[in-house]
Amino acid sequence: MEETKGAPDLLDLMVQPGFYVENFTIQRLNAAAEGLLLAPGMDIRPLIDAGLEEYQTFEGGCLYLRLRLSGNGVGASVTRQGGMDAFVLDTRECDSALQALSLAARELRDPLAAIMVSAGALEGNEAQLALLNRGIHQMLRVIGNMSDAGRVPPASRQETMDIDALFCEVFEKAAALAETANVTIRYQGLEKPVLCLADREQLERAALNLISNALKFAPAGGKIDASLTKCGKILRFSIRDNGPGFAQNLLGSVYNRYLRQPCIEEGRNGLGLGMVLVRSAAASHGGAVLIDQPEGGGARVSMTMAIRQNSSGILRSPVLRVDYAGEQDHALVELADCLPPSLYKPAE
Q1: Which of 8, 109, 222, 247 has its Cβ near the most Cβ atoms within 10 Å?
Q2: Element of type H or E holding 164
Q3: Cβ distance 84 to 7 under 8 Å?
Q4: Which own/partner pairs from 18-26 qualify as long-range (CB within 8 Å, at least 24 positions apart)?
């Protein structure tokens, strides 16, 4: 325990509830976590609602999973520090910030729709119109992410499908678009199809957001490798780029950087709302998200999903779903920050 003596001091600096776990046992809580009916000596495993298998094999990086505390689902980011695992919980302030963004997004949808109509009627310089059209797609992406990230809990409408076929479709389109940015995308799927309950829209958006992140950091001439594998009753989707990887000081807060100081970060880092959607998709599918830096460099993000065949406990909505991309091409919207303007030339 000598090497971890200084670690608890960091815990006391956190405004969010947090605690340390060693050998699956809670060791110490900060003041913000003391009112959560947690105590030193408790086994963390019964409290993990989604991501237990992932935590049991956790070796490093940043893992996002779900806990069940006092009957409520709570997200938690887990990082390893000096042999102990630091759990930092989402707070109501996090949810409030996202809900505020969602309200702002609703106010922006109508004026953006008017801009889209006006832009579609413009004639003139083709290159300038392409730039304008790409900018509109970028705004669509930001507004869509702001709106949907504020849904707490997120709506999930799941049906039986072949997830591998869904990812194949997404990556086939993304690979063709990425070629224009001089980046190669490769996807390796399952040997045999697996049918299970899934929300098509959530998984498509999660995959496209992870592709977008990878494209932002992959160098010209770089490559992005993605795969879907099956291990027991879990599917693991992983995507890896050959860029510089995550800065260590950002790794522990990568899931909620919208609460940090995005104005002082690199522009390509964005607000981090894409990762909010990814973690929500994983939680809705009984899984977790792990970010790590594998040997050989680059960054890797893995999202797991439980293989479920019955609809028990799955939220279904009778309301007709509104297209999140405003009836525009989903890949062109979600990858708008990474693709050249030439792809956004007005249709003839």
Answers
A1: 222
A2: helix 163-179
A3: yes
A4: 18/86, 18/87, 18/88, 18/89, 19/86, 19/87, 20/81, 20/84, 20/85, 20/86, 20/87, 21/84, 21/85, 21/87, 22/83, 22/84, 22/85
Using an 8 Å Cβ cutoff, are 209 and 171 in contact? no
What are 87's strand-pairing partners?
19, 78
**Pairwise CA distance, residues 134 & 247, whole Å:** 29
CB hemisphere CA count around 46 (13 angstroms): 6
Measured CA to CA, the distance from residue 170 to residue 208 in angstroms comes to 7
16 DSSP assignment? S
Rounded-to-integer distance, Cα 39 and Cα 29, Å: 7
Contact 11, 18 (CB under 8 A): yes
What phi and psi values does residue 22 have, to the nearest 5 degrees? -135, 130
pLDDT profile of the chain (348 residues), mean per 10:
48 84 95 90 96 93 92 89 88 60 64 68 79 87 76 72 96 96 96 92 94 91 95 95 72 46 42 79 93 86 91 51 78 92 82
Q: What local confidence, expressed as pLDDT, does residue 240 receive?
A: 95
